Amino acid sequence: MNKRRPYVRPMDGWWRKNPYFVEYMIHEATALFVAAYAAVLLIGLLRLAQGEAAWTAWLATLQGGWAILFHLLALVAISYHTYTWFKIMPRTMPPVIVGGKKLAGWVITAGGLAAAAAASLALLALVWGMAR
Amino acid sequence: MEIYKADVIIVGGGGAGLRAAIAVAEANPALKIALVSKVYPMRSHTVAAEGGSAGVKKASDSLDYHFNDTVHGGDWLCEQDVVEYFVARCTEELTQLEHWGCPWSRTEDGHVNVRAFGGMKIERTWFAADKTGFHMLHTLFQTSIKYPSIKRFDEHFCVDLIVEDNRIAGVVAIEIASGEFTLVEGRAAVIATGGAGRVFRENTNGGVVTGDGMALAYRHGVPLRDMEFVQYHPTCMPGTGLLFTEACRGEGGFLLNKDGYRYLQDYGLGPAEPTPRNKAMELGPRDRLSQAFWYEQQKGRTIEGPHGSVVHLDLRHLGEEKLRERLPQIYELAEQFLGVDPALAPIPVRPAVHYTMGGILVDGRCASPLAGLYAAGECSSVGIHGANRLGSNSLSELLVFGRVAGEEAARFASSVAPAAPASVLAQAQAVEQRVLGIRQNTRGNERIATLRKEMAQTMEDGCGIYRLAETMQKTCDKLDELKERFKNVRVEDKSSVWNTDWLLAIELEYQLDVAQAMAYSAINRRESRGAHQRLDGFEQRDDVNFLKHTQAHYVAGGAPRIDYGPVKITKSQPGTRAYGAAGEKAEQERKASHG
Amino acid sequence: MAEQPKTIEIEVLRYHPEKDKTPHTQVFEVPFTDDMSVLQGVQYIKDYLDGSLSFRWSCRMAICGSCGMMINGIPSLSCQTFLRDYYPARVRVEALAHFPIERDLVIGMEGFIEKLESIQPYIIPKEPRTPAQGEYLQTPEQLAKYEQFSSCINCLLCYAACPQFGLNPGFIGPAATALLHRYNVDSRDGAQAERMELINSEEGVFNCTAVGYCSEVCPKHVDPANAVNQNKTNSAADYFLRFLSPKGGAK
Amino acid sequence: MKRPLKRSNAPIFWALFGAGGMLSALFGPMLVFITGLAIPLGLLLPADTLSYSRVLAFVQHWIGKGFVFAVIALFLWHAAHRIFHSLHDIGIHAGVGAKLLCYGLALVGTVIAGYTLLAIGF
Ligand SMILES: Cc1cc2nc3c(=O)[nH]c(=O)nc-3n(C[C@H](O)[C@H](O)[C@H](O)COP(=O)(O)OP(=O)(O)OC[C@H]3O[C@@H](n4cnc5c(N)ncnc54)[C@H](O)[C@@H]3O)c2cc1C
Ligand code: SF4
Ligand code: F3S
Ligand code: FES
Question: How far is D33 from chain C (nearest CA, A)?
């Protein structure tokens, strides 16, 4: 008679048990802000389609306290998303060989963050240029 | 009891066992193979081998050189016809392993690279960074998965062989996960259970290296040959015994005493040169290096550490970059276990038991005197190591003789009919009762750990680097006493599932048998040769009386019976074993006299 | 001895299938020295305090892969983790997470072995060759492409680190994928397409949400997360390109 | 594994997730800053930057259309994928339901954005 009786441990609350997982859940949660921000833009787009008055009204709502607060939080969350996105990049990308040597992880992360900074500046410059 | 009907049984999933299993599968895909191992194959101790595996590779090298290095290194106690076969097969086997995916280190143009190793005249050691055994074992294990005829019994602990009509008929194993017994029937069996280094206190071996297969064959009347020859490796971690591979010295490491002096030059291994020269100084053979350590210790020129005397292995001059590239694992071991950065500080080292040269007596085709029983790898004594193994010969041995054992076992299994199943089962049930008895014994009061520690200590005392009749006798007596006390061993754990307490007790019994064979073989060899060095009037090699193999025979309830067998000499007459400048001179003279 | 010998407390998660319904913890006092690994601590318990404690170990040098345990909640090789890093606090030792506990610190490994067997972990040569023809040429650069992925010791720490494996034990998981990838990128091998089916399947790489902790705990710097995630790209390419290629990619 | 293997259709969602993740990592913070903070608060940029005519012109150009569509759709797909997995992570195995909800919403958003952009014309 076989006396084996393997015990399977439950997974409940696993994400609370290790700081690494807590961090993971936080960066996953940034998706909520990405979604919400996309929704805000979508509403803006709909308002735009409805004509000038609707659009201006939408712009005005963006000036409300809650709207500002939301965008502040979204800014933090999505910036954090940017940071973590490039932080795991070395883990998700094929190795980059430069001069016979594998590029170190931090170089890739730094490169990604630099690209994000460049893209942001370009975007800002573009909008600024259009506005003038 | 579960019954599995195989054709060929292989006990041991290390390098030798896996190579044998593949050989059977390739020789005859119709044969059913049972591969029984007490650990998952990739946990076998082959995994720990660091340095490399020998096979003639360079144009400047030759089979004769490899032959001579091996026979001289073995102090002429080798079976020379077997060595000839061996050196001729190494390169093909290593190449085969390359085809199976082994990540050998390469030269710039894509060929397999070779490095220097102790006692080897020309660089011929194939290596995969400093994880050679690891890569060989995983390559073999993963390749074995390709063959559907290999049925693995992982984590099955073999407790006995079944012999019927004077030939092998099966093995009995415990499924560790359930504690249930399995009878594996078969017409041929290969034992590939590895060495027995853990009968000693400080050793480089893994917990699984307990000589089980040696004891199994021994108890069934197969002699253990040359068991007194136990290799000390000169550069091990004090305390744990973990190994710093010889490759450290092959790459150019120095051994220094407490004055920072390369003391090996005082022991006929000089001259001391800044870069490694084959067969000289730090690249001398292991027995000589370990012996030199012992003398330095006697002279008070070693360094005292918390785990005894040490000397320094100095790698600093090689620089961090080279160390990280060529010896990455060594680098990490030193950093983590000792807190030493080898690029900045020397590593404290001392000799520890490393390898059992002797083992199950088999002929050049790996056949033991018991029909159908074969052995390969460290558990066997096929005759290539003699009185002292050269580093990097044993990994090649696993391949060459693992294959031979597999092919021979396949041939034998195809040539005979199975034994009568009823009597085989009856025997197996008797084995089950006996082995369960060890667990169920409630009267005992001896702790397993205590007996084990006493055994390991007495082996170190009596059968260490240098030996004296008096201490060896003490060891023999102590082992007799321990065997007596073993009858009262207490297995605390009475349960079935994963009862490692029980397995440790069984292993201890195997170890005591093997230790006895070693100690009695040692005390009876009244000469000094290779790894067996005496200081009690037998300091010289004695070819007149002892150019022969010791054979220890099991005697139930008593001391082993020792007798001797001849040594096969083909083309190398015993000469002086000299290294360093003296060795080169001796070789010149030998050449000159041959014209 | 002038100094009072020091001791450290080791808290062990025990489970005995023949007696216990669920695991429970037990605390042992173990003599402490500076150079003792957690494995040595646990061995001390077995040798002198409680012979019934079960765990796997062998090499003591971080290469055989048997001694993985959760040490203070972190998947670790116990032979390579030192008590001095916790002293004087108590150390908690448990069986590797996400695996069934067979007993005490011993986990069931069959699932992993099945996965390993399923990935065809052997060279299926691009151009067959006999030993007489000598070795395949492989430059150090070609070797470097797979060497890292070939250094996996099957210690399973990465599985104990991967919540996606915990949530779905069918997931092929980090180490097996790393080994699969090791063969795919070996210049001698020509069977990437055959191995794709598994990568693409529901047990395959898309179970991974790039948690990345697997690579964090890997004692051999295999970076299994990298193997898994590179194969997402490969799999996606295979998924979309099969419509283009006449043979339809992997089936 | 001997049993038949079922091909996962995850690559579609994963590709959208990855594209959205990359786009939001590169432009997300600055977009939020511009539309949500700089303009409403009159920081850095003139208050009329997003005047109706300007935005309309932008969205009527095919580049602008493309950008707006990509941002809204890919952000949604990225988020949907992550949220779907996180539900699984925290033990809500709503299975098909959760999948439909997450990806369904993303799909609806995508369709609305596409339709509206087309409706706005060129
Ligand atoms: C640290 C170290 C470094 C080394 N470096 C080198 C080197 O650089 N070059 C070189 O040539 N040699 C080296 N050696 C020696 C060489 O590695 C070994 O001799 C060789 O690996 C032994 O292989 P094996 O297959 O005979 O046994 P192992 O690999 O030890 O395998 C034994 C197998 O038998 C099984 N087994 C044992 N008992 C039982 C039982 N009762 N029931 C079921 N199964 C059982 C085990 O599970 C295991 O699978 C080194 C040795 C050590 C310890
Ligand atoms: S990938 Fe790393 S952590 Fe995972 S099993 Fe292999 S060695 Fe262990
Ligand atoms: S932790 Fe698991 S989720 Fe992926 S990156 Fe590693 S396999
Ligand atoms: S005991 Fe081998 S890895 Fe720890």
Answer: 28
- Cis check: omega of the bond before B274, within 30 degrees of 0: no
The pLDDT, as a whole number, for residue B536 is: 94
Question: What is the DSSP code (8-state) at residue C80?
Answer: G
Chains C/D: 3 or more C-beta pairs closer than 8 A? yes
Fold of B233-353: Flavocytochrome C3; Chain A, domain 1 (3.90.700)
Decide: B509 and B482 in contact? Cβ < 8 Å: no
- By the CB < 8 Å criterion, does A4 face chain B? yes
Sorted by sequence, the CB contacts under 8 Å of residue B594 that are 6+ apart come out as none
Return all residues near B213 (Cβ < 8 A) that are at least 6 apart.
Answer: B11, B12, B158, B191, B192, B193, B194, B360, B375, B379
Say yes or no: CB of residue C178 within 6 Å of ligand 2: yes
pLDDT at C22 over 80: yes
Question: Chains near D, with 3+ CB pairs < 8 A?
Answer: A, C
The Cα of D15 is separated from the nearest Cα of chain C by a number of Å equal to: 7
In this structure, the strands spanning B224-225 and B359-361 are antiparallel
Domain positions in chain B: 233-353, 445-542
A14-131: CATH class: mainly alpha
Distance between the two ends of chain A, CA-based, in angstroms?
85
Each residue's pLDDT tens digit, B219-237: 999 999 999 999 999 999 9
CA angle C147, B43, C220 (to 5 degrees): 35
Residue % of chain B over a pLDDT of 90: 84
Q: Name the token pair of B102.
A: 């082994």
Average of per-residue pLDDT across B156-179: 97
Complex confidence, ipTM: 0.94
* Beta pairing, strands B548-553 & B561-566: antiparallel
Collapsed DSSP state (helix, strand, coil) of residue B53: strand
Q: CA B502 to CA B376: how far, in whole Å?
A: 27
Which pair of structure tokens corresponds to residue B495?
């349960």
What letters, b where the CB count within 10 A reaches 16 and e where it falls short, cover B463-500?
bbbbbbbebbeebbebbbebbebbeebebbbebbbbbb
**CATH class entry, domain D13-21+51-120:** mainly alpha
Ligand 1, residue B39: give the atom nearest the CA: 47
Instruction: List, in order, residues 6 or more apart from B353 with CB less than 8 Å away.
Output: B197, B200, B201, B202, B203, B204, B205, B230, B231, B232, B233, B241, B460
Enumerate the domain spans of chain D. 13-21+51-120
Complete domains list, chain C, with CATH: 7-107 (3.10.20.30), 110-244 (1.10.1060.10)
Beta strands across the sheet bearing C68-71: C24-31, C7-14, C91-94, C68-71, C74-77
CB contact under 8 A, C22 and A14: no
- Domain residue spans of chain A: 14-131
Look up residue B253 and give its two tokens.
Answer: 């490491």
Return the best residue to mutate from C157, C164, C172, C182 for the ligand 2 pocket (most ligand atoms within 8 A of CB). Answer: C157
Cβ contact C127:C105 at 8 Å:
no
Determine which of C30, C54, C79, C117 to mutate to test the interface with B (most B C-beta atoms within 10 Å): C54
- The model's confidence at residue C248, banded by pLDDT at 50, 70 and 90, is very low
Residues B316-347: pLDDT tens digits? 999 999 999 888 888 988 998 888 999 999 99
